[in-house]
Amino acid sequence: MFKNEDDVLENNGIYHIYKNGKPKKYKSWLLGAFSFLYDPIMNKSVFPKTLGASMEKHELFLKNELKFTHNKEILELGTGSGNLSQILPNDNQYSGIDISEGLLKIARKKFYKAGFKNFKLFLCSAEELPFKNNFYDICICNISLNFFNDLDSVISELRRTLKKKSKFICSVPIKDRNTDKKTIRGNIYSENELKDIFESKGFLFKPYPFKNGSLLYFSAVLEN
Ligand SMILES: C[S@@+](CC[C@H](N)C(=O)[O-])C[C@H]1O[C@@H](n2cnc3c(N)ncnc32)[C@H](O)[C@@H]1O
Which of 3, 66, 101, 155 has its CA 20 to 30 A from that of 126? Predict the structure, then answer.
């Protein structure tokens, strides 16, 4: 599954990326020791207050979208604490990447508990993936795209690692829906900006009609 087997080493259930014999390090907004605060912050503050969105509706929408997805190679960008383990059917092969080792450790427990037999977690950036070309059937990215500094590189990596005609499913806060002018962290795009960026890279961009606070749900299919 890797671009270069020698660059990836597992340590305690989490895969690390090596460059010149040294593990790559990443700067995460939430210090490892405070990772246990992530779920309460998302539940009690980010979803209801910052995004004006319902976490229940978010999970229900994604569950419905993914309920017929079985035995596929799934990639998630920005796994966080592993909430997709409650949404995605557990007979899929799952690869989750994130720059926070603390959150990946929480995710590891959740994926075990949810009965996934085949899952791997990677400490790495969405901007530089260790995976080989044309490997994944579906890529999912929830409320993380706004944190990627170099979106061009992320989309190039998606083009490279996704199989042709496969789907990127994303939920992301956008300017147009942030009607209460809340301060939302990261790079906040408009729907049209996202459409232009994805279409310029050969993806067919399709917003879902579902609305949930300032979140846009869209799919982008790799056309050519
Ligand atoms: C708001 S959280 C969302 C996590 C998860 N998808 C969820 O729905 O709970 C954003 C995540 O993106 C991760 N992240 C930020 N920059 C990243 C990057 N360049 N590559 C991979 N993950 C990144 C953060 O560490 C964080 O876990």
Answer: 66
